[in-house]
Every structure is written in C-alpha cells, then in structure tokens.
Write a structure and sequence with these properties.
Shape: elongated
Helix content: 25-40%
CATH architecture of the largest domain: 3-Layer(aba) Sandwich
Radius of gyration: 19 Å
Number of strands: 12
CATH topology of the largest domain: Rossmann fold
Largest sheet: 7 strands, parallel
Structural class: alpha/beta
Distance between the termini: 29 Å
Mean pLDDT: 95
Number of domains: 2
Low-confidence stretches: none
Strand content: 15-25%
Oligomer: single chain
Length: 268
C-alpha cells in the first residue's frame, strides 16, 4: 500500500515515516509540508533520521495524492480540511489525526466523508480508543451520582487546549449521561466559582516539558473514586495506530470513520 504523510517534518510525521518504512506491506510514496517550511525539497527519510527514501518533501498536495493510496495527515486544522477536500476530489482515502478543529471545520470534514473514505480521530492510540469505550461504559453504569473530572497533560509545544482526546472523552461521557457538553463542560477553574454543579464535566489541561500525553478520567462520589488513566510513553503508539487505520481504511466504502470502527468497538 502506498502511503503519503502530511506534516512529514513534524514529530508525528517522522515516526509515521519511520514505522511505515519498516512495515512489509507499506511503501512511502509522498511527504507533504506547508509552502513556507524550510525542509521543502529535502529527502523525507533523511529528514526523519531513517536514511534516504528517494521521496522529496513537497507542498504539492495534488501531486502527492496522485501517487498514493492513502494520505495520513498530522498537520494543522485549516490545512487538514483542505487536504480532506483534495483527497475527496482525487478519490483517495485519508486518515486525519490533527486536532483543534472548529465546529465549522468539523462540518467540512463530515461533508467530505460522503465523497471518499475519511477517518478522523483525535487520538490514534489503540489504548486511548479503548479508554473512550471504557469511559462511556463506566459513565453509563454509574449515572449521575458521581462527579466527572478529566485531567490531561502534554508537552509545552502543544498549541490547542484541552487536547482533542480530552474533548472526545468529555463528549463520550456527556452523551452517556444524557448531557449537553456545551452546558455541562467546565474548562479550568479560577476564583470564586461557587460550589460544583452536579452536572458539570470538568476538563483541566496541564502543559510542561516533553510529556507525550496523559489522560485521566475521575468518577468521584462521597466515599470513593474511580480513575481510568492512559499514559503514552512515546509517539510510536499514535504512529502505529495511524498506520493500522490507513491499512484498514483503504478497502472500505466511502464514509466518515473513526478508530472505534477500526477496533470494532462501535455498537451494532
């Protein structure tokens, strides 16, 4: 399978290139970066530290799509939306791991999913996607007697907050509890905020150093606390998941998918 990577010079892009290059069923066919990136024209493999691949890093989206079966995108929200539209026009599959989309951008992604095979997930890790499933089940089982708090921690370079993973956890739990996250979500607390409202879903973001990614969901009531925690030790967990998603996605019919589909965790 011919795979191209968008955001090829970034931390995630480099690991996807490395793991994809080592995979017996994958050929790296293209590497994308923004038009102002200083690495344009350099070899994607050399830039990723894995040796020469003979694949130049380019800003030519259409050219890269022409040569691949699937594009794996870890770029930026606006760029990702344009890449999804271009993939739909070219009839190519696309896996999107970018986070920080606005509501309008999410709608654009959903519309493009009607015209191609598009998988969008805030976190490609197998473990995190099991966490989504477990958090939904626990919330449904415990009901409204437990307060819900989500704490996420990432490296100092992360631009969006809360993380897409924390936001997805909040959405999953709100749905299981029959709440509207727009009303229930509480993002950070400061000052005299008053007593905690019973239907709040708290989401707190921590930034520092080189933390790859940590997420904890707390279900708390008088007398006990249940915690579900996932800690990523390296970006390889996300890169492996993205590659698995790409291999799974290419033979599917047109539609908008997520990692729950890949893992077979969606309710029938």
């Amino acid at each position: 399978m011919r795979i191209a990577v968008s955001g090829a010079a970034g931390r995630m892009g480099k690991r996807i290139l490395a793991l994809g290059h080592d995979h017996s069923d994958i050929e790296i066919s293209g590497a994308l970066e923004g038009p102002a990136n200083p690495v344009l024209g350099s070899d994607a493999g050399e830039n990723a530290g894995i040796g020469r691949l003979g694949v130049p890093i380019t800003a030519d989206v259409e050219g890269v799509l022409k040569e691949c079966d699937v594009l794996i995108d870890f770029s930026a929200p606006a760029a990702s939306v344009e890449h999804v539209k271009a993939a739909a026009a070219a009839g190519k599959a696309i896996v999107v791991g970018t986070t920080g989309f606005s509501e309008d951008q999410r709608r654009d992604l959903a519309q493009a999913g009607n015209r191609t095979r598009c998988l969008v997930a805030p976190n490609m890790s197998m473990g995190v996607n099991l966490l989504f499933n477990l958090a939904e089940k626990v919330a449904h089982a415990l009901g409204h007697e437990y307060d819900v708090e989500i704490i996420e921690a990432h490296h100092r370079m992360k631009k969006d907050a809360p993380s897409g993973t924390a936001d997805k956890l909040a959405q999953v739990i709100a749905s299981a509890l029959g709440r509207d996250l727009k009303d229930a979500g509480t993002y950070g607390r400061h000052g005299l905020v008053g007593e905690r409202k019973p239907d709040e879903i708290g989401v707190m973001a921590v930034r520092g150093g080189d933390i790859v990614g940590e997420h904890t969901v707390m279900f708390v009531t008088n007398g006990e606390r249940i915690e579900l925690t996932h800690r990523a030790h390296s970006r390889d967990a996300f890169a492996k998941g993205a590659i698995q998603a790409a291999l799974w996605l290419v033979p599917r019919p047109n539609g908008l998918y997520d990692m729950q589909d890949v893992l077979g965790l969606k309710a029938k």
